[in-house]
Write a structure and sequence with these properties.
alpha+beta; 12 helices; about 375 residues; 2 domains; six-stranded antiparallel beta sheet; single chain; globular; Beta-lactam/transpept-like; three-stranded antiparallel beta sheet; Beta-lactam-related
Length: about 375
């Protein structure tokens, strides 16, 4: 009996060692990383590999409006902000900070993970590349830059298709399985390999389907045309030029690896607002054109020729990695990320709104927008006296 028990222990030990060893092999390494790092959160940049995004050498602190923090937000709206664990809520108008509130010990120097709001920054970098003639046009095939797109149906996919989330590739955003592309993308260690493994399942350029893989492809293209890391590009081409005050981070797939371009940028709330103003000012920063104005105008408008499968009509809420959320009489454009990372530009009010936090409402308003997002816009309108 003792011998049998000993053999069982040895066998169990062997299985455990084998299992632990497998988590260091490419198909399973994301499982080990998930166990070590845990569920997604806005402070993930503290636990994942990352690369610094240097702030501007000429920082431009935000001027305070004469009515700074004098507005009082209704209690029911404040309750909503707190219910979903908001950490930062900022409102700007006419280039001045009108309202600023933080929770949980966050302050103007606290970094916070963007999740998919970073997709809009990748779009801006494409606009910069177009402005600097690093790419010839949006209808260039991806195959000009990524070898795995040179054959078959993948050869038909263009930059525009990836910008409008209409590549037709088999990255399914709703798949939350252990071996889904989302799992490999966020916790894995080889983003280029994940992209190389994608296959076409529907014609490119026809139908909108939100997929992080399309943004990652754009990131790989930007790396190629500039021969630089995404974090370095974000700093050199945007962050340095818009007066950012605090160094940020971009999370990587592995130490000294590649940026997860589809997510995972971590600046402060005040520096998020600078990207909001780039939306508001169509790629211009105080008289200096950062990204092509023509490109930004198109990027912030519904994508042409792309069908929304939820309505069967042309897409009305998505451009080139930016969202268009209607709210009452307002037309807004926004950067949006998981758990309610939201940066709006509201042209009719010359305003920018930033909301960061740990949670978002499960209920939706229409097929794409969460219920709490309308409450935040309502709170912003109270601040602005509308």
């Amino acid at each position: 009996m003792k011998r049998l028990f000993r053999n069982l222990l040895f066998g169990l030990g062997g299985v455990l060692l084998l299992g632990a060893g497998l988590t260091y092999t490419p198909p399973f390494v994301h499982i080990r990383n998930y166990v070590q790092r845990g569920e997604v959160d806005i402070l993930d940049y503290k636990h994942h590999p990352k690369r610094q995004v240097l702030a501007s050498t000429l920082p431009e602190p935000w001027p305070l409006d004469s009515n700074f923090n004098k507005a009082v937000i209704s209690q029911n709206l404040m309750d909503t902000l707190e219910k979903y664990q908001t950490t930062a809520f900022l409102v700007f108008q006419d280039g001045k900070l009108v309202y600023e509130k933080y929770w949980e010990g966050f302050d103007p120097k606290t970094l916070s993970q963007s999740f998919s709001a970073a997709k809009s920054i990748i779009s801006m970098l494409v606009g910069v590349a177009l402005y600097e003639n690093k790419i010839r046009g949006l209808d260039e095939p991806i195959s000009n830059y990524i070898d795995s797109f040179r054959e078959g149906e993948k050869a038909k996919i263009t930059l525009r298709h990836c910008l409008t989330m209409s590549s037709g590739l088999d990255w399914h955003e709703k798949d939350r399985g252990v071996f889904s592309n989302n799992a490999y993308g966020y916790y894995g260690e080889d983003m280029a390999d994940v992209i190389d493994g994608l296959n076409v399942e529907k014609p490119a350029g026809k139908e909108f389907e939100y997929r992080s893989g399309d943004t990652q492809i754009l990131g790989l293209v930007l790396e190629k045309v500039y021969n630089k890391k995404i974090a370095d590009l974000a700093s050199e081409k945007i962050f340095q030029r818009i007066g950012s005050e605090t160094d940020a981070y971009w999370m990587l797939d592995k130490p000294k690896g590649r940026e997860k371009a589809f997510c995972c940028f971590a600046p402060t709330a005040r520096d998020y607002a600078r990207f909001g103003h780039l939306m508001l000012w169509k790629g211009n920063w105080k008289g200096r054109q950062i990204a092509s104005e023509k490109y930004m105008t198109e990027a912030l408008s519904p994508a042409k020729g792309v069908i929304d499968p939820k309505t069967g009509k042309p897409i009305e809420v998505y451009g080139y990695q930016f969202w268009m959320q209607p709210y009452k009489d307002l037309q807004t454009v926004s950067m949006r990320g998981l758990l309610g990372q939201l940066i709006w530009a509201i042209p009719s009010r010359n305003a920018v709104v930033v909301r960061l936090g740990h949670k978002e409402a499960p209920q939706k308003v229409g097929p794409y927008f969460k219920q709490d997002s309308e409450m935040y816009l309502q709170a912003a309108m109270e601040v602005l006296g509308n």
